[in-house]
């Protein structure tokens, strides 16, 4: 139909003629299809014009309305613009349409659920079951195959298991503190979202101890020195001890870090063999990522490793050169691991907080750096704000492998450029593709051998 084609292609003269035509703007423009607005959901200008002309977001046949088409192909910003104009998010089977999206599925689904779409109006789906349950879905409702959402969630591992190292962020890495750190804030948010969590640290703070005690077995603790690789290699086994023989962590957080302590600083120069600050800040995230990948590949499941770096990972600071170098390395490592997401379904991402009011700055052992860098609360973000960014990165598909998020005062979601030295895409030449394939071949061969070998991968020798 010319009207439909004019709207879909955004041809303004025909579109204006359609608006001037003496007909109901909410009539379907094709048999059993939506009204004109349903064909304009990819063009903000045309959609706005139609809404101004009294277009109804809920007009059309029962299963195919403009909101249905927006749920299928509309951008997130477009859907945000349209939703205030619709009075019934349960008409048009919108949640069914959302599940056919190619991107931003969970984000759009959550948006509609928050607007009141009933999570019990459709069968459960692997990529979005967690959102259903968080918004009141009946976990005991059966789908068309007779399975309940509760059973399906358990089979799919949607009650995520997280391994988080170091919740104290104490400056000397040995003493607990009573100030909430970034990782402990993340533990709280992950637990609230329904995840099971293993905390790996030297010892727990009083707040962390209380969280473990009141978690009904959903949060466990194991002692771990992240600079000791034997401790790190034991973590997959510690997960099974805490949560059962078949438990495999699918989200890993490399959160331990120290900030230019006197016992490991470039200026102090007291160490004889190496900078332990590098072992903690740099080597441990790299090693943990390798352990995490082997664990997830062995269980043949996707996974995520988030590395907590710092804004110092993209800038230099004369006052803390080893710390800056350690965080630059984390950023470079994360960029280099982008291909693992495309090849193996394991994504490595990195968050770069600015100054945060945590024990790193406020602890007893941090008094010298507190004074040196003129620490003040009014330039800080909170641990909770950083934890929210971490939750976004590990749960939302828009943050692919290699993603970097800077989070600082006044700019809580600054996604940084993450360039790879070489990447094959649709425009790459056959010669380039062949060269990259050969470059990646040894890596892919190793991961192929590790995939599905649970005995030596997920819970065995690392």
UniProtKB/TrEMBL annotation:
InterPro entries: Ankyrin_rpt-contain_sf, NAD(P)-bd_dom_sf, SDR_fam. Pfam families: adh_short. One of its GO terms (cellular component) is cytoplasm. The keyword Oxidoreductase applies. Keywords: Oxidoreductase. The keyword Oxidoreductase applies. GO terms for molecular function: oxidoreductase activity, acting on the CH-OH group of donors, NAD or NADP as acceptor. PANTHER family: 15-HYDROXYPROSTAGLANDIN DEHYDROGENASE [NAD(+)] (PTHR44229:SF4). Belongs to the short-chain dehydrogenases/reductases (SDR) family. This is Uncharacterized protein. It comes from Meristemomyces frigidus.
């Amino acid at each position: 139909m010319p009207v439909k084609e004019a709207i879909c292609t955004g041809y303004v003269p025909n579109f204006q003629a359609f608006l001037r035509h003496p007909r109901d703007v909410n009539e379907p423009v094709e048999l059993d299809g939506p009204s004109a607005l349903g064909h304009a959901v990819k063009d903000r200008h045309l959609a706005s014009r139609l809404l101004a002309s009294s277009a109804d977001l809920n007009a059309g046949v029962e299963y195919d309305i403009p909101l249905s088409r927006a749920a299928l192909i509309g951008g997130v910003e477009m859907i945000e613009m349209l939703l205030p104009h619709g009075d019934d998010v349960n008409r048009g089977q919108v949640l069914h349409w959302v599940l056919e999206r190619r991107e931003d599925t969970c984000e759009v689904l959550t948006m509609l659920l928050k607007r009141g779409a009933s999570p019990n109006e459709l069968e459960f789906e692997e990529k979005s079951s967690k959102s259903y349950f968080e918004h009141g879905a009946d976990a005991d409702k059966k789908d068309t195959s007779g399975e309940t959402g509760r059973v399906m969630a358990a089979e799919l591992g949607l009650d995520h298991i997280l391994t988080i190292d170091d919740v104290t962020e104490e400056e000397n890495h040995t003493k607990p503190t009573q100030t909430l750190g970034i990782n402990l804030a993340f533990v709280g948010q992950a637990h609230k979202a329904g995840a099971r969590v293993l905390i790996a640290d030297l010892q727990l703070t009083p707040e962390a101890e209380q969280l473990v005690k009141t978690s009904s077995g959903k949060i466990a603790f194991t002692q771990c020195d992240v600079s000791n690789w034997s401790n790190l290699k034991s973590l997959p086994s510690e997960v099974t001890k805490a949560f059962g023989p078949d438990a495999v962590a699918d989200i890993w957080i490399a959160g331990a870090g120290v900030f230019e302590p006197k016992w490991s600083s470039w200026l102090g120069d007291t160490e004889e063999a190496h900078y332990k600050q590098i072992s903690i800040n740099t080597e441990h995230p790299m090693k943990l990522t390798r352990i995490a990948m082997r664990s997830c590949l062995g269980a043949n499941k996707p996974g995520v490793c988030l590395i907590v770096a710092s804004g110092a990972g993209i800038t230099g600071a004369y006052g803390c050169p080893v710390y800056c170098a350690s965080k630059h390395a984390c950023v470079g490592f994360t960029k280099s691991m982008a291909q693992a997401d495309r090849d193996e379904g394991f994504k490595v991402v990195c968050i770069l907080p600015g100054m945060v009011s945590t024990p790193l700055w406020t602890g007893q052992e941090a008094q010298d750096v507190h004074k040196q860098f003129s620490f003040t609360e009014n330039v800080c973000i909170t641990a909770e704000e950083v934890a929210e960014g971490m939750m976004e990165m590990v749960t939302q598909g828009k943050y692919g492998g290699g993603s970097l998020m800077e989070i600082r005062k006044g700019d809580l979601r600054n996604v940084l450029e993450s360039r790879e030295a070489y990447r094959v895409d649709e425009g790459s030449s056959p010669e380039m593709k062949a060269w990259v394939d050969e470059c990646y071949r040894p890596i892919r061969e190793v991961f192929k051998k590790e995939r599905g070998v649970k005995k030596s991968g997920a819970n065995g020798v690392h």
